[in-house]
Amino acid sequence: MDITAEPLDLALLAPLMDSLPLRGELRGRVVGAGPLSALDLRADLAFADAAVPGRPTSSIAGRGRLAFGGAEQLAFRRFAIGRADLSLATIERLAPAVGLHGRVAAEGTLDGPWRDATFAGALTHRDGDGPASSARGWARLTLADTVRLVADLALDSLSLDDLARTYPGIPLHGAVAGQVHVEGPTTALALEVDVAGPAGRVEARGTVGALESAASVQIRGRFEGVDLARHFSWAPPTSLGGTFRTDLVVPTADTLAPVTGNVQVALERSKAAGVTLQRAGLGLTLGTDAIQLDTLYLDHPGARVDAVGALGRPGSPPAQVSFTVRIDTMVSLAPVVRWWRERNGGGDDESAGPFGDGRLVGSIVGTSERWELRGDLHVASFRYGSSGARTLRAEGVYAPGEGGARLRVAVEAES
């Protein structure tokens, strides 16, 4: 057998396979020998998917044995894939729960019925221009009333920026590497992860599910050495360690819809901008109309921070977060001040201070899109560089805006 398709309409194959799930045109060459039940085949094919807007093309080149007919309809028998470049939009039509966008390249071996096939080899995912993700291992995809997936993968590089193109709710950047095991229906995949990168290490387990227009994420785990500065431009350098728990719904169809659910984080001994935190905790409830801060606390040998309240979502009514900062000795926070000065071009002056003790009471009022910070600071025995006072009181308001930030400060000092 030596067949060249220029092109071949897949509708012609319908008599050989019941309920053929693909619609479109096939181009390329197929060379084979043997009965249909054990056909030795060499193929180099490209498929244009007529059922997907833009008719994306998927291509595959490989050789091995195929079995046509019977209950399995089509089965792979150690079919070696030398090259495959597949549109995930086409894969999603076969397995609607696979909501990842972009394309996947593969090289390895396929074995088993096409509705319950196992792939072993290397995978690379890319969504447009930018960084890609790559992995090695095996995966078994079962296409039934409920799609199931079992996979053991060694991640050479998992690009968080690449994933964020499909799931904009992911706020992280950079890449990680490590081990991933998933098993179960795609609506409730059991997940075990151990990954690390320049921004720290995370070990987690839980359940991730593909819903009709969103993804559910129920995960708990541990992290160590996490540096927030690698993910957020506003953050100081950190080395955070502790535990976390999430129960989230991440929209995938409507990218403007907010992430909802709960997040809990407990920090053990960690550092931020050179300051050691003995312990800290955060509890968030993410609603459709507001982000509720159930608890926030930070313990430091010379300070304590507590906050509670809420901020409205964009377009929702404003809300308020109230916070209190108690400082027993401001010199213990000098590393934070130095980081702030360096960040804003002020240089590093070890002798600048600050020194003293005090209390800051304030609030953040508004929405996550438009907010205002209000504060009332009382400091005793204050000194910063060559300046000092027996008591210092400052009241201020800060509000960012499209036309520039608004800042108002009133200071009273007794020397």
List keywords for this structure.
single chain, 415 residues, mainly beta, 25-stranded antiparallel sheet, 3 helices, 5% helix, elongated
Categorize the overall geometry: elongated
Main sheet properties: 25 strands, antiparallel
Q: Helix-strand pattern, N to C?
A: EEEEEHEEEEHEEEEEEEEEEEEHEEEE
Helix content: under 10%
Using the CA coordinates, give the radius of gyration. Answer: 28 Å
Sequence stretches where pLDDT stays below 50 over 5 or more residues: none
Task: Please give the number of β-strands.
Answer: 25
Short overview:
This protein is mainly beta. It has helices at residues 88-94, 160-164, 334-343, and strands at residues 2-9, 24-33, 39-49, 57-68, 74-87, 103-113, 116-126, 133-142, 148-159, 175-185, 189-197, 200-210, 214-226, 238-251, 260-267, 270-272, 275-277, 279-286, 290-300, 303-312, 319-327, 355-366, 371-384, 387-399, 406-414.
Task: Provide a descriptive summary of the structure in words.
It is elongated, with a radius of gyration of 28 Å. A hairpin with an 8-residue loop joins strand 14 and strand 15. With 415 residues, it is mainly beta. It contains 3 helices and 25 strands. The model has no long low-confidence stretch (mean pLDDT 87). Helix content is 5%, strand content 62%. It has helices spanning 88-94, 160-164, 334-343; strands at residues 2-9, 24-33, 39-49, 57-68, 74-87, 103-113, 116-126, 133-142, 148-159, 175-185, 189-197, 200-210, 214-226, 238-251, 260-267, 270-272, 275-277, 279-286, 290-300, 303-312, 319-327, 355-366, 371-384, 387-399, 406-414. The chain has a 25-stranded antiparallel sheet that branches.
